[in-house]
Design a protein that fits this description.
The chain has 17 helices and 27 strands. The protein is α/β, with parallel strands linked by helices and 662 residues long.
């Protein structure tokens, strides 16, 4: 029996799914989580596609997907497959299909798996709202059945597996009209196709619920598992991915939050990290994510009875908390920079967390990604602080400070419990969530009645997410409304592993509405080099953590501090150099706080896949770009040489443009 949407909310336990055979690869039913990617070459260029596929396989891909937008590409999959097999590569191939059932039916006879998108395989998307009667809706489903069944029969005959892959941005007008732009609409879109396949006694099926928004993605997968369990009494294997995640740190953080949140609950049998980079560079990130679960076994945190959640895991609502200063309540989550390891704290140290001092004007420049608080440990600061920046320090250091207006004390749980009730002050209290029920209840009982407290919660349990979720749930159920700052500490040996570790452990909780702030701590690396940016030890290690904190909040949509890019990972359909164009657009627009810009390689990843973007830059033909505002076309067939300038002009005309700060 599932606990809402997974086997257990208090211990790690893989969701049992049906076994699917893809060539020689077995997926689901407890088999190891499989890694995959997608080629970016022109499918008609056999040599280039084979060469890139080999690079992906040698990097560690266990499945490789290749686009087949028409019958010609579908037929050429045979040449690609034969050449790979002749070179000794037996990795299963997946044909990626949009709009063209005929191409899918050809590909299903050649490769080991086909991917169809129920939003555009038969249905069309014109952004029309249509009022359907139940009879008319049933008639539409019957039409889909007649068109989809031939592919199901071919797959069954040839032993070909299938992925029914719903994308949030490409829901059909029919689904949108009945269910809206929602996770349940995504689920129903896939279930319609799944029911047809089950009616033909065909079960070699994998499902996916992708979105560029990790919150939508996670809710959709949870709902899908719940609905399959309720309707069929069994679940099919799940392919996880955040679509159009982007590049660099942001793409990795988004993917870690979306994919990691589900893997932590035992959901997911195969993953792809969709980055706007060459596909072989996706594989190491996939490996780092999957490595977290290799050999992981159940580790009981509390009794295994079904936990009663004080929140709805299918609908986001931020946990209610009483504001303390600017933390909690309706305030956006804060970022607390941990400078406790610094021997002394200087004006220069604040540059790494968003504050730069101009000695000539005697003024501070404060960036949009400036930390809200500093934690200084046993040290105090001997210079005037900028703006609203405030300091947290250990209780014994705080007691000695004469002017406490910008200082707050940090206490251990033991210190807090010993003095609470005798001092009416604002306290920040560090709590390890790894407690027995008795210890937890004693702490909760002591908390009741004291208002001005912020809890900084970490877990030393090896199942960090489950332990933190359990502890915060108990606080919430018992009416403790203190703001909660999530403390995440990583000792992983590489930057990517630290990024994934921190993003998963905090992002998953933020998606459930838990968290009024972040403190990130790591083991500083000798030299942090990452995706075009270099961080040097200590001072710039703090810059890395500060940037990561704001990127996590942005990815979970809990605090917007910068421009957001929804960028597809490129494939054989792409009509321009996506990586170069993304870099050019980012360089021109990165200062537009809160603006969401989609950069899509072709019409398949066009107005639909852009989901909730404010503006879109979409390939519409060789050397031609179409510009969108929302889902409306503003300019068609713009030459790519001037398209970035035209996008900037569109931003100006729409009055969202501001000049870059000097």
């Amino acid at each position: 029996m599932l606990q809402y949407y997974c086997p257990s909310l208090t211990e790690y336990n893989r969701l049992t799914t049906k076994e699917v055979k893809i060539g020689d690869l077995l997926l689901g039913n407890g088999h190891p989580i499989c890694i995959q990617t997608m080629t970016t070459t022109n499918t008609m260029d056999t040599a280039a596609t084979v060469a890139q596929t080999i690079r992906c396989i040698e990097a560690g891909a266990e499945l490789v997907r290749i686009t087949a937008p028409s019958k010609n590409e579908a037929e050429n999959l045979l040449n690609i497959k034969n050449l790979l097999r002749a070179k000794g590569y037996t990795t299963p191939l997946v044909a990626d299909i949009h709009f063209t059932p005929n191409a899918a039916e050809i590909a299903a006879r050649i490769v080991e798996k086909v991917r169809v998108n129920p939003g555009n395989y038969i249905d069309k998307k014109k952004f029309d709202f249509i009022e359907y009667t139940d009879a008319a809706y049933t008639e539409e489903v019957d039409r889909i059945r007649a068109r989809f069944t031939p592919l199901v029969k071919i797959c069954k005959e040839y032993g070909t597996a299938m992925r029914i892959g719903t994308n949030h941005g490409s829901l059909s007008d029919r689904i949108m009209s009945r269910y809206g732009d929602s996770p349940i609409g995504m689920v129903e879109s896939a279930l319609e196709f799944l029911r047809i396949a089950r009616g033909e006694n065909y079960h070699q099926i994998v499902l996916s619920m992708k979105s560029s928004n990790p919150l939508v993605m996670v809710q959709a997968y949870r709902l899908l598992v719940q609905k399959m369990d309720e309707e069929f009494g069994e679940c099919y294997p799940l392919h996880l991915g955040v679509t159009e995640a982007g590049d660099g740190e942001d793409g990795r953080i988004k993917s870690a939050i979306g994919i990691g949140s589900l893997l932590e609950d035992g959901i997911g049998d195969t993953i792809r990290v969709s980055l706007t980079e060459d596909p072989e560079f996706e594989i190491p990130v996939c490996k780092d994510i999957v490595a977290r679960y290799a050999g992981r076994t159940s580790a009981i945190i509390t009794a295994t009875e079904k936990i009663q959640l004080p929140y709805d895991p299918f609908n986001y609502k931020r946990r209610e908390s009483n504001p303390v200063d600017n933390i909690g309540g309706h305030h956006v989550p804060v970022v607390i920079a941990h400078l406790g390891k610094n021997e002394i704290i200087t004006v220069k140290d604040l540059e790494s967390v968003g504050y730069s001092y101009d000695e000539r004007t005697d003024k501070w420049n404060i960036s949009d990604s400036a930390a809200d608080y500093l934690y200084t440990g046993s040290k105090t600061i001997n210079f005037a602080l900028p703006g609203t920046l405030k300091v947290l320090c250990d209780y014994l250091a705080w007691v000695k400070i004469k002017d406490k207006r910008k200082y707050y004390p940090v206490l251990s749980a033991k210190e807090y419990m010993s003095i609470i009730g005798s001092v009416d002050e604002t306290f920040f209290v560090y709590v390890d969530a790894n407690r027995t029920k008795e210890e937890q209840q004693l702490f909760i009982d002591k908390c009741k009645g004291h208002e001005n407290t912020v809890l900084c919660i970490e877990s030393t349990h090896k199942e960090v997410l489950q332990c933190m979720r359990w502890f915060v749930s108990e606080l919430t159920k018992q009416g403790i409304k203190f703001p909660i700052v999530l403390v995440s500490r990583s000792t992983q040996p590489t930057v990517d592993e630290q990024l994934i570790d921190i993003a998963t452990n905090t992002g998953a909780l933020l998606l459930d509405g838990f968290g009024d702030g972040l403190v990130l701590i790591n083991t500083p690396l000798e030299d942090i080099k990452m995706h075009g940016r270099t961080y040097l030890p200590m001072q710039n290690n703090q810059q890395f953590l500060n940037n990561t904190a704001f990127s996590i909040l942005q990815a979970t949509r809990t605090r917007i501090s910068k421009t957001e890019y929804i960028s597809c990972p490129s494939c054989g359909r792409t009509l321009f150099d996506l990586q170069e164009t993304t870099a050019k657009i980012r360089a021109a627009t990165h200062h537009l706080k809160g603006v969401k810009i989609a950069i899509m390689g072709c019409i398949v990843n066009g107005p639909g896949e852009m989901a909730d973007a404010d503006f879109g830059y979409v390939g519409s033909g060789p050397g031609k770009i179409t510009l969108y505002q929302g889902k409306e076309v503003v300019k068609r067939n713009v030459p790519s040489e001037i398209a970035v300038d035209e996008l900037i002009q569109l931003l100006k005309d729409s009055e969202v443009w501001v000049e870059k700060p000097l």
